[in-house]
Amino acid sequence: MADSLFLGLDVGTSGVKAVLVSPSGEVRASATTPLQLSAPFPGWAEQDPLDWWDASVASIRAVRSHAPEADIAAVGISGQMHSSVFLDRAGDVVRPALLWCDGRTTEECREIERRVGGEARLRDLVSNPALEGFTLPKVLWLRNHEPEAFRLVATVMLAKDYIRYRLTGELATEPSDASATLMFDTAHLRWSREIFDAMELNASLVPDVGGSSDVLGHVNDAGAAASGLLAGTPVVGGGADNACGAAGVGVVVPGEAVASWGTSGTLLAPMSEPRVDPGLRAHTFCHVVPYAWYLMGVVLSAGGAFAWYRDQFARELAGDPDIDRKLDDEAASVARGAEGISFLPYLQGERTPHRNASARGAFLGMSLAHTRAHLTRAVLEGVCFALRDSLEILRSVGFTLNEVLFTGGGARSPLVRQMLGEVFGIPVATVNREEGPAYGAALLAAVGAGAFPDLRAAGLATLRRNIADAPSVPAHREYDAPYARFRSSYRA
User: Fold this and answer.
1) Average pLDDT score over residue span 408-418
2) Residues in CB range of 325: below 8 A, 6 or more apart
3) Which contacts (CB < 8 Å, 24+ apart) does range 252-256 have?
4) 265-271 and 155-157: which strand pairing?
């Protein structure tokens, strides 16, 4: 294994990333192929799985070109959660996938609650509420609104599982993605027969479940011809992007937590048993570690909110490679609390804590005295406040967090790191790897190939945590009033 590399692939919303990782944890090559999101109607979000495949092939070939003689011992794949891939009996895509941020299925969510006998029963069956982003409402939407397409559907898959299928010809999934479909009994690690019966769906729609680090297929001749990988290369189960992102920074055991600031934002804390937030404001999903779970709060627009703001309010800086740093400098010139401005980052609705796909963003408290610098600071603080909502929920159900690891694009900003630590009131640390879920997928591949006995050992051998700076107590207290203002603004 000393000379082998492990390929990690992450099928994201904005692009497909591939990394080649050595047994020591060094990233030998990295490549990202961009993707476009389609929004044919307000609240809709779709992508064509064929575009995921084309982007995956391009990214794989790009990293292979940097290490053409390397032996790739195994492949791991991560991907966006919930997004629905509908395949017919021939394995062809029936229609574009409905994404995790698609909000068209509110009526289907209510239908699910009616059919199972209420939200409390849903909590017992799948440990989560019926939310528009989940997979099951999308299946019902297809049945209700596009019945001709639904009649063609033989298999429902998740994004990363479709890529594995194209590489290997095998239909399969694993617990971390299955638990985010609303069709999986998260506590007992099985598909929920009760859910399928209540929805009048055939359980054959979903594939078999294997382990995240188990080999669930091998690259076949067609996959090899397209990707440039060798036929016979093992492909492990992989995992959902948030779980793989946690694995990619070594957060796999209870007592730790990771905040992610990508297109969306999350706060994730592993558990040794499937605990559920009584208010169902946070999600209970399976981790990529065997017999482990995590509780997670989700902010639908984190980096996505900042990108929207940057593109609309800083157009004169478009194309400037230092645009984000310049906006950070503007924000840093303004005092904590943005001098009374609050920003609600609910541009695509919100999951935690409001569970409202119809929620929308807002700037509140503006006056003639305010400048763009104030708005910039308010946007960054608004995302941090939204993540603090998730922190408060974790604390309310018994989690004690003394430090949070921070990953994603936001973690590269010194200002955002400082701001999140001050808003949380606890140290925020980073690790020496910034490749995110793709790196976690590569570590799963390494475990599946036998390079490490388990994922924790893989993380200890390849990751190094940077020392966290503790936020000052006065700075944290300065955020109490702005955070209270943010909390009250949603209902107002």
Assistant:
1) 93
2) 413
3) 252/287, 252/288, 252/289, 252/292, 252/455, 252/456, 252/459, 253/289, 253/292, 253/456, 256/403, 256/405
4) unpaired
Query: How far is 242 from 225, CA to CA, in rounded Å?
Result: 30
**Whether 142 contacts 149, CB under 8 Å:** yes
Do the Cβ atoms of 407 and 258 come closer than 8 Å? yes
Residues designated catalytic: 241
Angle at 330 between CA 328 and CA 334, to 5 degrees: 110
Q: Tokens for 415, please give them.
A: 């200002």
Other CB atoms within 10 Å distance of the CB of residue 14: 16
In degrees and rounded to multiples of 5, residue 261 shows phi and psi of -125, 85
Domain chopping of the chain, boundaries: 4-248, 250-432+452-492
SS (H, E, C) 38-73: ECCCCCCCEECHHHHHHHHHHHHHHHHHHCCCCEEE
User: Is it the case that residue 2 has pLDDT exceeding 70?
Assistant: no
Per residue in 177-199, pLDDT tens?
Answer: 999 999 999 999 999 999 999 99
Backbone phi, then psi, for 87, in 5-degree steps? Answer: -115, 145
Residue 401: phi and psi, rounded to 5, are -115, 120
The C-alpha atoms of residue 437 and residue 429 are separated, in whole angstroms, by: 18
Across 124-205, the runs of DSSP E, i.e. the strands, are 155-157, 172-173, 184-185, 190-191
Q: What are the CA-CA distances from residue 13 to residues 31, 51, 159, 345, 423 (Å)?
A: 15, 11, 10, 18, 28
Residue matched to tokens 């503007």: 330
Q: Give 365's DSSP letter.
A: S
What residues have CB less than 8 Å from 180, skipping those under 6 apart? Answer: 81, 82, 134, 135, 158, 240, 283, 285
* Each residue's pLDDT tens digit, 323-344: 999 999 999 999 999 999 999 9
pTM for this prediction: 0.92
Phi, psi of 19 (to 5 degrees): -135, 145
CATH of the domain spanning 250-432+452-492, picked from 2.60.40.420, 3.30.420.40, 3.90.280.10, 3.40.50.1820:
3.30.420.40
- Is there a shared CATH topology between the 4-248 domain and the 250-432+452-492 domain? yes
Overall average pLDDT of the 374-400 stretch = 97
Please tell us whether the domain made up of 4-248 is placed in CATH 3.20.20.70.
no
Q: Tokens 């995790």 identify what position?
A: 100
Q: What is the pLDDT of residues 194-243, one digit of tens each?
A: 999 999 999 999 999 999 999 999 999 999 999 999 999 999 999 999 99
326 Cβ contact partners less than 8 Å away, ≥ 6 residues apart: 314, 317, 320
DSSP letter assigned to residue 257: -
